[in-house]
Design brief:
mainly alpha; coiled coil
C-alpha cells in the first residue's frame, strides 16, 4: 500500500508509514462507506447515461418529423 502523504510503499495492512512515520491506517467502517458511495456513484452514472440516451432518442425523433 502506498502512503498517501509521501507516496512510499508500505506493507499491506501497515498502520504507520515506514518512511515518513505518519498514520496510514484506514478504519474498516470508512472503507465500507467508501465502497457504498462508489456503488451509488456508479449507479447514478448508469442512470444518467440512460437518461442522456433517452433524451438523444427524443431529440432525434423530433428532428425526423
Amino acid at each position: 500500500m502506498k502512503c498517501p502523504y509521501c507516496q512510499s510503499g508500505n506493507l499491506e495492512g501497515a498502520l504507520i508509514c515506514a518512511s515518513c512515520g505518519r498514520d496510514v491506517a484506514v478504519p474498516a467502517t470508512l472503507i465500507a462507506e467508501r465502497d457504498d458511495l462508489l456503488r451509488k456513484r456508479d449507479a447514478l452514472r448508469a442512470e444518467l447515461r440512460q437518461a442522456r440516451e433517452e433524451m438523444e432518442a427524443i431529440m432525434q425523433r423530433r428532428k425526423s418529423r
